[in-house]
Amino acid sequence: MALNFVVINETPGSEDILRKPAKKVTFPLSPEILDLIETMKTKVIEEEGVGLAASQVGYHLQLLIYHVPPDVLPMRKDAAEVVPLSVLLNGSYTPIPEEGMFSDWEGCFSVNGTIGKVPRYNCIAYEGQNIDGSSVKGIARGFLARVLQHEIDHTQGILFIDRLTPDCLQGPSEEMMKIRRQELEGGFPPSRE
Ligand code: NI
Asked: Which of these is catalytic: 81, 127, 151, 185?
């Protein structure tokens, strides 16, 4: 199974898959879906990403994978701990607005050439299902909450650029990376999701 990224305004039909809510996954998972999950895991590691939704590789399903690898911790002040590669099916989240919002750099495999500082909730309650159909619920904070918001948004047809308001720092990746480097000594790259 070879997976190619669906890129907004570039891949034919990209609006239909990236800007519309995906279908719920049903259980038990088919061998094809299990294979898809394994291939997505390989791809997100190869591409050095922190998350990937199935719609980004052409499968319009509420399926996403995410992790916080060890090398991210020193680069994100709100990344508290390593999170192993995980799968979330039929995921949703509820913001906990009392804990505030934080804007930080994001990029996306489905958006070429643009990165931006996206306002996200610091804390969310999320839920969904595991690969065996059992339910999963949790509270996520900081960088993990950002990753989950970005990926769950994908399953609902929302891209990070849709969360940017005109006052958000945003623009061509090359130009923005210069600002990012100035902001933080050593230059922290945007998350790739
Ligand atoms: Ni993305």
From this structure: 151
What is the 100 CA–ligand 1 centroid distance (Å)?
22
User: Whole-angstrom Cα distance, residue 181 to residue 150?
Assistant: 23
pLDDT tens-digit map of 64-78: 999 999 999 988 889
What does the pLDDT read at residue 77?
84
Task: Give distance in angstroms: CA of 59 to centre of ligand 1.
Answer: 14
SS3 103: strand
For residue 159, how far is its CA from the centre of ligand 1 (angstroms)?
Answer: 7
Q: What is the pLDDT of residue 122?
A: 97
Annotation says 81 is catalytic? no
Q: What is the pLDDT of residue 29?
A: 98
Ligand 1 mean position, distance from CA 166 (Å)? 20
Residue 116 phi, psi dihedral angles, 5° rounding: -165, 165
Cβ burial of 98 (10 Å; 0-12, 13-18, 19+) is: exposed
Which residues in the chain show pLDDT less than 70? 185-190
Which residue's structure tokens are 């619920």? 137
Report field, pTM of the whole predicted structure over 0.90: yes
Q: Tokens 């034919």 appear where?
A: 12
The total of other beta-carbon atoms located within 10 Å of residue 150's CB is 25
